[in-house]
Design goal:
- It is a single chain.
- The protein is mainly α and 622 residues long.
- It has helices at residues 3-20, 32-45, 65-77, 81-106, 109-120, 123-129, 135-153, 179-196, 199-215, 229-241, 246-255, 258-279, 283-298, 310-318, 326-338, 344-363, 376-392, 399-427, 439-453, 457-484, 489-499, 513-519, 530-543, 554-560, 570-576; strands at 53-54, 57-58, 505-507, 523-525, 565-569, 585-591, 599-604.
- The strands form two sheets. It has a five-stranded mixed beta sheet with strand order 4-3-5-7-6, sandwiched between helices.
- Helix 1 packs antiparallel against helix 4 (81-106) and helix 1 (3-20) runs parallel beside helix 5.
Length: 622
């Protein structure tokens, strides 16, 4: 029977189109992509596999795994956008396959196929898998750990029976008894520590722990007396607290071999953390653990804050277009968990997976949509179960919810058709046709609604999936390259590289990290006056593994580098104009990307005045 091979081919096709289409087309997007890609390029240039730097200063924001991956891709493909993003896409593809394996063991082969396709075509997962950021490696490591857990805990499924409960390898035990499986599971989490820190171990362990705590609860005898309302509230609170009863909680922790988890995680990740701590005199460890972890947990950094509904809204946007079914998906999942459905075990694990990530990150002060992306494989499995029952006509929610979901999808299409042209008028002149992207969800909603009304559910699912894939191709293959053409600041770099290739470049007020990456040299941060420079030096001495020379003032830089140029914004130019040497003038000026009313200014001595590029269509390579 060729069905498994056919399914694998379909998964490969959908994931490849969604994740690799025009992967290296747009230039690196600010702010994280050029920092990560530039850090890897600097480490490769000096053959340093320990200390991450960007613009020749210590980068303590992320651990080293992503840099190692990008460095290996640079060695094969060269320093290009495709190489910087290659491993993210490859690991995203691996996550899709791991999700298929989990769903196949907990549910069945049809659900596994649907889960792989849904994950491949969900918006935020595609973003994470197409960007040079640590998100894709972290998602992959966590999903691999949970795949090993599921395969090590549950028996292979009888493919002849579609709707049966997964059976534990050891009856009544919901944790692997094979030490190799346990070691492999925690090893995957240990690699996750190198991807993004302790969350790579803590959160997947918390997902498994929550599932085991609930799943292994002993059956409770029910009283025949109907409870009063007050007794019902008390009973509900007690039921919620049962998984955390001290004896049961400690027994579960012992069963999960948390000491083994710690030892294996440290054995994999600690050597690099020790080395980078030694070579930076502890600066990396202070910056990474105190600022990036403790700091983000206790205060909103970089204005990334939000209320208790931040992550539900973020998931509704990030899991689009499948998120239009979010309410019926979770309503059906909760109903089936409560009704002891044959797939209750799988529903429970997926729900714990989502609940742990959304719940814990909701407690942190700093909030970003990407933080909960590791739970998207679980969302895909829940969505796949919903679609499976929809095809079989066994959904436990009213069909009105489906109609409402398709109406919402159509409304989103209309809003895109109206909103994007308006936004383009202000920020992307000439790109009003981007609004045509809204036709895809609008037409998809109309077609799916028509099939639903006729009872043609299989055709509806196929149409919805095709629509989701077309959205991915239109966004990443057509939309982003059109937007990228409006990043006019690269024209200034082209002018410098063509007319003053040996010129040193300074900046005041902060420039986009992408300019640093594509400049191919250090862009020196400058200050206006000496007291500011001394304060900056004191701060850098505490943070950087080797303190750079004191930051120069703008006047010092221009006096020492007669051929040098300075990048700043028009707003910051007004702060320094009266301090500039009289022979320094504006050599070029372009609009700043997505910053209406502000421009990027190039200052220098006229001499061999750079000529501004007529267009900005070419990609500047390092």
């Amino acid at each position: 029977m060729q069905r498994p091979g056919w399914q694998f081919a379909l998964i490969v096709l959908v994931a490849a189109v969604a994740l690799f289409t025009n992967l290296g087309g747009p230039r690196l997007w600010d702010r994280d992509e050029p920092r990560n890609a530039g850090c890897a390029a600097e480490m490769l240039a000096r053959n340093d596999w320990v200390v991450p730097t960007f613009n020749q200063e210590l980068r303590d924001a992320k651990p080293v795994l992503l840099y190692w991956l990008i460095m290996s891709a640079y060695s094969v493909f060269g320093v290009t956008e495709f190489a910087a993003r290659f491993w993210s896409a490859a690991l995203g593809f691996g996550t899709v396959l791991a999700t298929y394996a989990i769903a196949n063991r907990l549910f069945n082969r049809q659900v596994a196929l649907l889960a792989a396709i849904i994950l491949s075509t969900s918006t935020m997962f595609e973003v994470a898998s197409r960007a040079a950021t640590p998100d894709a490696p972290l998602i992959f490591c966590g999903t691999m750990a949970l795949m090993i857990y599921v395969l090590g805990t549950f028996r292979p499924r009888d493919t002849a029976v579609e709707w049966t409960a997964p059976e534990p390898r050891v009856p009544g035990r919901y944790f692997p008894t094979n030490y190799l499986a346990v070691a492999a599971m925690y090893a995957a989490m240990g690699v996750g520590i190198l991807a993004k820190g302790p969350v790579g171990l803590v959160l997947p362990t918390a997902v498994i722990g929550m599932f085991v705590l609930i799943q292994s609860l002993p059956a409770r005898a029910e009283s025949a007396r109907p409870p009063s309302r007050r007794a019902g509230i008390t009973s509900t609170l007690r039921a919620c607290g049962r998984p955390f009863a001290p004896a049961h909680f400690l027994r579960t922790c012992w069963q999960m071999r948390l000491v083994t988890a710690t030892v294996i995680g440290l054995a994999i990740a600690a050597p690099w953390y020790v080395l980078v701590g030694i070579q930076t005199d502890g600066a990396f460890l202070r910056g990474f653990f105190l600022d990036e972890h403790f700091g983000r947990a206790t205060r909103a950094m970089e204005h990334h804050s939000g209320g208790p509904l931040f992550y539900p809204v973020a998931v509704a946007v990030g899991f689009f277009p499948w998120s239009v079914f979010m309410l019926p998906i979770f309503m059906g999942a909760i109903r089936r968990i409560c009704d002891a459905d044959p797939w209750r075990t799988g529903y429970l694990l997926a729900t714990c997976w989502v609940g742990v990530y959304v719940g814990l990150f909701s407690l942190a002060a700093t909030k970003l949509p990407s933080y909960v992306t590791p739970c998207y494989p679980a969302l895909a499995m829940l969505g796949a179960c919903f679609v499976y029952h929809l095809l079989r006509g066994t959904t436990v929610v009213s069909e009105r919810w489906l109609r409402a979901a398709l109406v919402i999808l159509g409304l989103v299409g209309v809003l895109v058709m109206i909103g994007l042209p308006v936004a383009a008028t202000y920020f992307l002149p000439g790109e009003q046709l981007l609004g045509a992207a809204g036709l895809i969800p609008l037409i998809g909603a109309i077609v799916c609604y028509a099939f639903l009304q006729r009872g043609m559910r299989k055709q509806m699912v196929i149409s919805f999936t095709t629509m989701a894939l077309l959205m991915a191709v239109s966004i990443f293959g057509l939309g982003l390259p059109s937007i990228d053409r409006h990043r006019h600041s690269f024209a200034l770099l082209e002018s410098i590289q063509k007319n003053r290739p040996d010129a040193k470049i300074g900046e005041f007020g902060g420039v986009e990290p992408s300019l640093v990456f594509y400049a191919g040299q250090r862009i020196e941060p400058l200050v206006i006056d000496r007291p500011t420079a001394e304060r900056q030096q004191a701060r850098l001495t505490l943070r950087n593994f080797s303190a750079p020379p004191p930051r120069s003032t703008i006047v010092e830089f221009l006096q020492q580098n007669l051929n040098g140029v300075l990048l700043t914004s028009r707003r910051n130019y007004h702060l320094m104009a009266d301090k500039l040497p009289t022979d320094v003038e504006i050599l070029g000026e372009v609009p700043r990307f997505l910053k209406r009313g502000d421009t990027l200014v190039l200052l220098g001595r006229p001499g061999d005045t750079p000529r501004m590029a007529d267009d900005n269509s070419g990609s500047i390579k390092r």
